[in-house]
């Protein structure tokens, strides 16, 4: 098998922070010996999350078994996921903003046609629905738990309690047409075709503001593991939270 050096477009601080987190965890559970040091385990997990490297490729590169790779990545992901903010904690940040942007995305997964709850009719592929809140500059603030891709954005937002939380925080939110009737805190475009006059200007200005939220989506999808998730659907929420925790700490 051929091997070659590679790189991960993350800072050494990110690696050091995750290494320290793993070292503290090992001390708490009384782990005495591991095949990899905390630093190597952190590098292993970041390579999987950022670059989307498979377990088999990582096992070969780090000279450990595939089962060991799975355990090490799961352990690191769970530790990172615990650091991600809850919706209540995110509202503390939201209250300091003039407004926020709400949008939803469907993360692709490897499921067959029979798995209808995961099939997004809008995106035309199987996936998991994740709601994202961004600040006026498009920086990521919070990402929700993952729901089956067939879930409508409005239903997902209500399931997570986003409209209620935004109303309680008294912060305005810009969103697309999918969030019609979500509540007074969420502003959406005017529905209709061939709009003219102030209706057209309103929708144009609304789109300019809301489009910045795509930067938060791009931030998530810079992590290649989220571009095509091949794990169990029960693990996707933890992976999304882990990515959010790393991004907010950068």
What does this molecule look like?
This protein has 250 residues and is an alpha/beta fold. It has two domains: 12-81, no CATH class; 87-231, no CATH class. 46% of the residues lie in helices and 13% in strands. The protein is built from ten helices and seven strands. The chain has helices at 12-29, 38-51, 55-62, 66-81, 87-94, 153-160, 162-169, 197-210, 214-221, 236-249, and strands at 99-108, 119-120, 125-134, 140-143, 147-148, 172-174, 186-187. Helix 5 (87-94) packs parallel to helix 7. The two termini are 35 Å apart.
Q: Main attributes?
A:
alpha/beta, elongated, single chain, 7 strands, seven-stranded mixed beta sheet, 250 residues
Low-confidence stretches: none
Mean of pLDDT: 91
Global morphology: elongated
Content of β-strand: 5-15%
> What is the number of helical segments per DSSP (H or I, 4+ residues)?
10
Distance between the termini: 35 Å
Kindly state the number of beta strands. Answer: 7
Tally of discrete structural domains: 2
